Amino acid sequence: MEENINEIKELIENKKMNKLHEKLECINCADFPALFEELDKEQIIVIYRLLSKERAAEVFAELDSDVQEALINSITDKELQNIIDQLFMDDATDLIEEMPANVVKRILKNINSENRKIINELLKYPDDSAGSIMTVEFVDLKENMTVQEAFDRIKKIGLKKETVYNCYVTDAKRKLLGTVELKDLLVAERDELIKDIMDTNTFKVTTVMNKEEVAKMFDKYNFIALPVVDKEERLVGIITIDDAIDVMQDAVAEDFEIMAAMQPTEDSYFKTSIFTHSKNRIVWLLFLMLSSIVTGSIITQYEEAFATIPLLVAFIPMIMGTGGNCGSQSSTLIIRGLATDEIRIKDFFKVWWKEIRVSLIVGIILAVVNGARIMVQYQNLQLAFVVGITLVITAMIAKSLGCILPILAKKLKLDPAIMAAPLITTIVDTCSVLVFFNVAVLIMHI
Amino acid sequence: MEENINEIKELIENKKMNKLHEKLECINCADFPALFEELDKEQIIVIYRLLSKERAAEVFAELDSDVQEALINSITDKELQNIIDQLFMDDATDLIEEMPANVVKRILKNINSENRKIINELLKYPDDSAGSIMTVEFVDLKENMTVQEAFDRIKKIGLKKETVYNCYVTDAKRKLLGTVELKDLLVAERDELIKDIMDTNTFKVTTVMNKEEVAKMFDKYNFIALPVVDKEERLVGIITIDDAIDVMQDAVAEDFEIMAAMQPTEDSYFKTSIFTHSKNRIVWLLFLMLSSIVTGSIITQYEEAFATIPLLVAFIPMIMGTGGNCGSQSSTLIIRGLATDEIRIKDFFKVWWKEIRVSLIVGIILAVVNGARIMVQYQNLQLAFVVGITLVITAMIAKSLGCILPILAKKLKLDPAIMAAPLITTIVDTCSVLVFFNVAVLIMHI
């Protein structure tokens, strides 16, 4: 790609438009955003005007919203109209959602009334719904069509559609009756009727279904596209695999951010300003910082203990750290398991019992290794026992909380991802310090 | 699904085979694993024998390896042969990789020699290579075929193939010349030549390419399938979108596990025994526990300080916790950015400069809020300053390490995911305690 960029820059500078045109034809639409990042505004427009109508729209859909805005502001109404006409309706809707008001006004002015109506409908679907990611371009067939008629219809309308590999059969009221795959049409005789070859056992989703649930269906059943119906079972759109993959990726990115105690954003790392970065991070940091005051005040209550045996303080970081790590291991596994439907709320006791046994095993190993090291370093059997017992109990508490809290969150219809390492660690800190000093007081008779 | 399961159980018990057969036809192949989980071994075999040949193989490919093994052990050689013949070659290869030796022997005995050869070839590709996830079933065309001949070929061989929507044009030496999409064939005239309609600007991958890189290409370019060529540029297989999605999911699952200080596993949570769970978790726990001894021994060096002002100890959890959270926020963002190619090694200074500024903002806010709380609770301006300065410096160190270490890991060709919260937290703990006591000694003249 890098050599391409340099070559293109040279071609623009030397005004070799024919060569440039040829070169651009070989570049995949999805590579233009990276190319445009390296060029200045005038160069981008020169290149953009060399693209064919179809490719111009496809490239446009791939661009970041700030580049889209800059482009719209530099082209004529006629050019804008061309782009919008060629865009898939779901991409056009996304565009309108992301542009500032003055740009939206100009876009709407340049859309024909039919498309404006469709876009208005699409804009009504909530952000997390299947309706918000569907496209209204699909091939619909009637059950009394012959295979030949179906082919004719696909040829006539289908090739501009986002996917032609699945065709949908509807009745007069647009109710979905079944699906026909293009490959089934291929083997059928030309005069067979669609109703005889269609698959009536059709998977479909509703416009109001959660889009992440829809994405999971794509993953599980290996669909290329899924039909979307409204409340009255009428076919209103389809969701294609590429949009489902985007939903999966966004869901993962969101989970990673929430699990690291941040408010999730849709923007990329570099596109997010330092103030937004700070805002997204400070809320959880403040909350967790203030929560850890509890741990601090527990420690002050044992002032006498560590005044007598100051060495105890040296073990606080190790015990807190190990507890936190034990807890975040479990919570990460459970949160992921819940996200992928591998673990369900009803599995609660099964999971807990498993974590209890695992925590016992790792706790004992940690206690033994650490006991050995304390004996070597301090020859203090009492201390070895205090720390060892604390480690086992802490591991058990940490791993229990690591599975209880995410499942509880799910049960309460909260996002289990908030019960990840940062929050678990803060809670486990309190428990482990409490256990540590109590065990110390008990065994060492302080 | 649940009502389906109960209905099916009843039908088996009452031996209503016709009804059962009908019922089974309506169940998607991907739903059989969930169904089988609820049935006993005999019931599974009854159901399995009612499936058509094609569906039997498809269902088989969806099953977990322990159910596959149980099934193989309960069916005749003839039945086994039927399954293997119908399986896609990549699924057959996966099966052989996962079965114990005695089962593999029986499988190999029941494969025809041609397929055995193909499987042997597939087994040679390393686990993380494109070759290991490709299938050898695809539609290949010649450039001098007409569109009609292409259709005939697709009808003859294509419908058993994993995807017929992309056809590949090869020369006599099987070198890849171009791609023809099925929809392009549809609009072409019957007597047009393939070489006139094929797209020669074909994306392809090599057998040795990393499979995660291949999955990223699917995501970026919205492919349904990608051709795979060997060193001599000969077409040897294709990778389909469903396998690419699996690779993406596995990569994410692996990252989550590594980032929570665990050795990644391929098995599901419940399929993994408690000993394997313990083994996967103990290594990092031990390493991090022993690393935290450093923090402990730093604390012992400041015994005098906290003997004079015991309140200092109460702030250790808060400072360590906040430092850890600051660090894991940054490291999570950077690790994800590196994984999705949004952040590159060359962006190092850009990222660092951003994190420094963010850490300054959040550090100051944390310091002010905490300072106010100390003034209210203890009326101790010195302490407020000590903790405040420590928080700002710790936030800066934590966020710096959170971006430096993952990028450094990538530079050293290590997995950046190991530089996640647990390791960063342990390192930041040491730094923050050191900063805290030094600032305290300096300001409070202890």
Textual characterization of the structure:
The structure is a homodimer of 446-residue chains. Chain A has helices spanning 2-13, 17-25, 32-37, 41-50, 53-62, 65-72, 77-86, 89-98, 101-109, 113-123, 147-157, 182-187, 194-197, 211-221, 241-259, 274-301, 303-308, 311-314, 316-339, 348-378, 381-411, 421-444, and strands at 140-141, 166-170, 176-181, 205-206, 225-229, 235-240. By secondary structure, chain A is mainly α. In chain A, α14 (211-221) packs across α15 and α20 (348-378) runs antiparallel to α21. Chain A is elongated, with a radius of gyration of 30 Å. The relative contact order of chain A is 0.06. Chains A and B meet through α11, α12, α14, α15 and α16 of A and α12, α13, α15, α16 and α17 of B.
Largest sheet of chain A: 3 strands, mixed
- Total E-strand runs of chain A: 6
Total DSSP helices of chain A:
22
Beta fraction of chain A:
5-15%
At a glance:
With 446 residues, the first copy, chain A, is mainly alpha-helical.
Helices and strands in order, then pairings?
Two copies of one chain form a homodimer.
Chain A: H1 2-13, H2 17-25, H3 32-37, H4 41-50, H5 53-62, H6 65-72, H7 77-86, H8 89-98, H9 101-109, H10 113-123, E1 140-141, H11 147-157, E2 166-170, E3 176-181, H12 182-187, H13 194-197, E4 205-206, H14 211-221, E5 225-229, E6 235-240, H15 241-259, H16 274-301, H17 303-308, H18 311-314, H19 316-339, H20 348-378, H21 381-411, H22 421-444
Parallel strand pairs in A: 1-2, 4-5
Antiparallel strand pairs in A: 2-3, 5-6
